Amino acid sequence: MPKLCVFRNTALTITLCCNAAVMLQAQSFRVHIPKDARPLQSGGERAAEPAPLDGRLLLLLSNDLGDEPRMQINDTPASQNIFGLTLNGARPGSEVTVDDSAAGYPHLHLSELPPGKYMVQAVLNLYETFHMGDGRTLKLAPDRGEGQHWNLAPGNLYSKPFPISIGANGKPVRDVDVTLTEVIPPITPIADSEFIRRLRIQSPLLTKFWGRPVYLSATVLVPAGFDQHPEARFPLMLFEDHFNDGFAEFRTTPPDPTLKPDYSERFHLAGYNRIQQQEAYKFYQTWIAKDFPRFLVVKIQTANPFYDDSYAVDSANLGPYGEAIETELLPMVEKQFHAIGQGWARFLYGGSTGGWEAMAAQVFYPDHYNGAFIACPDPVDFHAYTNIDLYRDANAYFTSGANKQIEQPSMRDYLGHTTITQRGVNQYEAALGDHGRSGEQYDIWQAVFSPIGPDGYPARIFDKQTGAIDPIVAKYWHDHYDLNAKLQREWPQLQPKLDGKLHVYVGSEDTYMLNDAVYLLQDFLDTANPPAHAEIAYGPRAEHCWNGDPKLPNAYSRLHYETMYVSKIMQRIQQTAPKGADLTSWRY
Q1: Second label for 303, Cα 20 to 30 Å away, from 125, 202, 437, 546?
Q2: Predicted pLDDT at 16
């Protein structure tokens, strides 16, 4: 093995060298922190004066010269290169060397980059110090209104991209200077409109947990005639989703005739942007039609330092988001926007993360809602955590053959081809942040479902480097957040409250193999005693995120969440509303 020797190691500059054979291929970059750099303070505001900075320094190199490298990093085969390291107390005016010590994706090390022309850019995703209510001190990237996107987060520092050539004449690049001259600006608040309104409250429960003010928000789509009918009281549909402060699928004006058509790689459709505008305008026309039921659609914003969404449950690492939503935010929404405010008149729907949340809210708070429409949910049974059995497998990245380990996929395309492996997607997250701070999918599952680890951050469900699964943490997941296990464990108590309320939809070729967990859920619900009277349906050959429409492909049906379950919801209301319930004031 190459022998590593550290010849310079301070809080600001880390340079690793290898033996001579490896050094010939090494690349290194010097990232300069500006003299006037200011850290983040509580609430995401920048400090008034320069001071040492904490955060994740990300060096980005792209051989696609068409856009900034910071806009080209993702977990798909098209992703460009990212190399990350954590800074603790980096002084303004200092420099940081990024070399093979940085965690990389898709190449593990800078020295593995193939020769060629690249655009170079650096981003410093700033952390704040959180003094938690239980006494822990954590360094995390707060959400600053952008939904936990490090490349767009206000206050983050970045450099202007510039070109370089790597491997020209067989020589590596050494000590390339990159300067963080730019600051991502604040986000301009969105004004309310006739149909889209917003509400923001401080949560006492979450404020106590995080040791600082924490806010919850809701974006509400109000029905036609809302302001003209103050006496009306409306059913409420909670649309569980990722961070979203608007309704892009709702458009009050006809499609833009000058819009240049794009191409959707996901759906293999030309002009998908035009399709989206067309469907959004159709939704508006349906929404205001005289015979369409009047109800409220609510999207909640619960972005946090680990992800763009809280998963709507109480968690050791994220805090009591479930209780805060149910007892603080939704009562305020219902009061301000004239909801009926009773369980028979509340429903849930959503897909993917929102699908899991819809099911979890219905299961954890069974009396609060009258039905959940659960599309392509994140794993509802951890025997099928995507394609990992957390209870029986020893490793998340490989299965063992007779003579070798077999690498496991994490994502597949619509033809079943692997687009990234389990090891690859976690390599991507490891480059973005250590201690579960990537802001990405596996790290938020870990943050929501795990106990607090020995270091104060979420306990690891598996080792990011080796894939080795921790059975003790897996047992905690099983006992607290495995939804199928909870149903089986508590069915005699839950069945009367969930009878006929669960509607689950998933494609048989789900991109993330989420259909496997639904198969296990169906095995239980089909044989449950007393019966569940649940609905489970599969979209043949459908990828992520099939939502139960057998007539339209995902490209269209994903734009129809607010209308596609309405007939079933109205039927459920008629069947279950208590005597004397308000079934008329909202049918104007």
Answers
A1: 546
A2: 33
